[in-house]
Amino acid sequence: MSDCAPVGTCLNTSLPSSTATSNSANVSLSDVSPQDKPWDKHRSFADAVEGLYRGSEFNSYSTRIHFCSELLHFGLVDDDGNALKLKLRSARFCRVRHCPVCQWRRSLMWKAKAYKILPKIIEQYPKHRWLFLTLTQKNVPITEVRSTLTDMNRGFQRMSQLKVFPAVGWLRSTEVTRGTDGHAHPHFHCLLMVPPGYFAGQNYIKQSGWVEMWRKSMRLDYNPVLDVQAVKQGGTPMELIPELLKYCTKESDLVHSREWFLELTRQMNKMRSISTGGVLKEHLKELENEPEDLIGKDDEAKIQDEIALYFGWKRKDQKYLMIDQ
Ligand SMILES: [Zn+2]
User: Fold this and answer.
1) What is the rounded CA–CA span in Å between residue 222 and residue 219?
2) pLDDT grade, residue 22 (50/70/90)?
3) How far away, in angstroms, is 54 Cα from ligand 1 center?
4) Which residues are found with C-beta within 5 Å of the ion, ligand 1?
5) CA angle 171, 176, 182 (to 5 degrees)
């Protein structure tokens, strides 16, 4: 999955000879490192989002996004003698919530953290089981997203406090997509950890039971659409991380309609997209906050003596191209 390109990505081609010369204007990042191709796509969406904000009440976001990740500094790292890989060393990020580059980087950082922390949780609770629950309600006009998410937060809280609620810990993310009719579809993705005897015991809840519990907790007068899946015994919840920690709103929905997008920005202002609870809160609460590091700093690779490569965003070409030093 290209969106999940790891923080350090392998080069699968040798560097073109032109990199050593002054004639590097046409060497693109995606040619040098195909696994860094997502940069072009996300920065390209960022150009579109920048355009949507321009001249609006969010004009300052437009300016910030304009300068976001314009210049990427990579180090060429020897990956244990196996291959050379590009490792991002520095870039300036705008941190505007709906900036496509920043939300991609945020998602990568959250995933990296989750991949690191989850094995420790599994080690601590080896016999516990995992459920993946998607909670929805009817689509709403984009102007009602904020109040709907507030209701859903309250509904989830009520549900989690029920005696019959089986999870002892959870991680929950919010997603808002755009329906074909232009309405918004706010929903929650939840990873739930349940006790070892859950599937055989009295506390087991069928799909219809979940619908009933969510309907009552949300005080709805209809049965909401809901999906619940179990991670099979011996399986790990790791495979659910990409779905759980993806973007709050996918890029194609962001740029579909200017009015919709500007309203989404108003509606989502300061709304939290990830929350944690129960016994997992202590382990995962770090994910509730905006990651400070969007680069993916680590100390595995030596920084001294490595070759530095710079790529600049070329709007006209919609590509990152190598820059001479
Ligand atoms: Zn940005």
Assistant:
1) 9
2) very low
3) 15
4) 68, 93-94, 99, 101-102
5) 165
